[in-house]
Amino acid sequence: MAEDNTYESMLCVKPEVHVYRIPPRASNRGYRAADWKLDEPAWSGRMKITAKGKMAFIKLEDKNTGELFAQAPVEQYPGCVVEAVTDSSRYFVIRIEDGNGRHAFIGLGFADRGDSFDFNVALQDHFKWVKQEGELAKLEASQSAAPKLDLSFKEGQTIKISIGNIKKKDAGGAKARPMGGGLLPPPPGAKAGGVMPPPGGQQTVAAVQSNTAQPSSDVWGDFTSAGSNSSKDAVKSGWVQFS
Fold it and tell me: Nearest Cα to 22, choosing from 95, 128, 98?
């Protein structure tokens, strides 16, 4: 019942194939298509290859009504259900069943070599997939049967982690960066804490002392002597004259 509920997929469809009556096999050398009456096929119609689970089905149907003419369940390929002839790549011998346990062998032929190639490849690909699925199922069964590794901690069990030597940075040990804008060092020859006097400073001081020792009687000096009488009058009247 579980197999009947499996989805049925379509593997290959060929619109025209031919069915032949074949004579009994004379020896173990295999079937030959030349022994058949190739110009007088017993039936012509449409062929489908479907897959349901691991099984493949070769179905021969009427091309107009879709009525089933014959069916060949295939459990493995290559096998006894589908056998290629020895003298052509376009003809095969298949074993059909009627559903009541009875079976018969018929000849199946394709008009084109490409159709026979597709027929062969469709069966090969399906049973290649069946083989891979079987190997995967065996691998999963062996892995599930193997004892699982228990990495959980037991009661009272502890673990010690060694991180290593980590040096802490000393916050007070960092040196302060010097602030910008500092004074330049004094030139060579200058005394510490003092300013180097300008050259000829003694003569300048002496000249200043001589000038202050003999003050001019005239406050305005050369300005009054070089000016005109009008400028003298402006000074006497209040230094600024408004017009």
Answer: 95
- pLDDT tens digits for 37-53? 999 999 999 999 999 99
Average per-residue pLDDT for the chain: 77
- Provide mean pLDDT across the span 66-90: 93
Task: Write down the pTM of the prediction.
Answer: 0.57
pLDDT at 2 over 60: no
